[in-house]
Amino acid sequence: MDALSEWFGGASWATWRVVLKILFALPMEKDELALFQRLSGRMTPPAERVKEAWLVFGRRGGKSLIAAFLALFSAVSVRYRLAPGERGLVMVAAADRKQARVIFRYIGAFFDHNPAFARLIEKRTAEALHLTNGISIEVHTASFRSVRGYTVVCFIADEIAFWRDETSANPDTEILNAVRPATATVPDALILCISTPHRRSGALWQAYRDHWAKDADPVLVLQADSRTMNPLLPVALVAEAYERDPAVAASEYGTDGTIQFRTDLESFVGPDVVDACIAPGCTQRPAIAGLPYVAFVDPSGGGPDSMAVAIAHPEGDVVVLDLVFEMRPRFSPEAAVAEFVERLGWYGVTWVLGDHYAGEWPRERFAKHGVTYEICRLTKSELYRGLLPLLNSGRVELLDDRRLRAQLLGLERHTGRSGRDSITHAPGLHDDVINAAAGALLLAVDVANAPAVSYEMSAEELRQLRALGFRPA
After folding, report:
1. pTM of this prediction?
2. Cα–Cα 20 to 30 A to 153, which of 27, 147, 296, 430?
């Protein structure tokens, strides 16, 4: 801890110095003990170094710099009992590559600043430092696949509340489930999760709910607002944030020593409800002659968004999803339309509904292939609201598609100041596949409710459907 006086000796780092004392069970002065009690909700500090800790702190509080320091400290100052030839790993996982690079630059700077530390570097790559003492420091993006097969001596999760993965609805939990066995054989291993809070779900919320303010709990949770951790943060900046949106500011910065999880944000639908609607192992259903298949397209002109199509049909009181197909970036919009039309042909579909993205080009491109493209006037939020009662009542048969499931479970319900809810994807995720699926399933409900529906229903007849607000432009 000698480097503390050099790197974190200023008054603005006082709270962080206490946090480090708490983590490593170092003696504290009376005022530091009082701060511990406020941060933890506990009366008695840990008697031995913490093995798992969750730091729920506000933005601009210095979290990434401390994460880098703890990575260095764990790599050079702790002696681990490893098997001969076994290499220990200090792993820092971040929400995305940009944030991972930020932390790695901090780590590299700490090593380069101290000649004794710099001499320990055996090999340096773009995302790793391999040290002569048998320890490596690596930064990773949040993926459970990246943590398997290692002996992890220290795992630091940066901004874990914001981890997103297009193929997993809960990457935070999956990664921790993979990390805990990797640290189990190392007596002095540390799992440290640092994040600004977000919605009341996921691993961070669960840890806070289950472990904060519980004396003698082996899992330590600390919470504080931004200015408690960084007194140099301008008061005006926090005040402006509260003026713009109090609910967001309360979770990003906090005030008066505390920080809150978002109370205006919640998961759209739970995993139990979704999983009950999935047919395990069924990734696509074959076309059956005579069924009234319908399709919905979520178009894209390229860029970061995918282009997706979904096909569905009604069966009595149930609507069945038959196909979802996605063209991911980068792709040619012309080629995507051709691929979609081919799949529409499998089910005899010559009329599709889609959102109003990109003006007239979807109409024109589909028309070249003999497919009518009409615009749905429902917003995405309205599509999702229409889908929810079908999910809750089990009147939907979904496909076993990881991206479909992840996007559905990644939807968030946000209540604005007006009291009106909006439903959209979480930051860093997409909703192209679930938007197409929701549109197709609701259109299948319309077909089921239309009088004298037949497989040969014309585009003109479909235009007359009124249920759930489907009205062509």
Report:
1. 0.70
2. 27
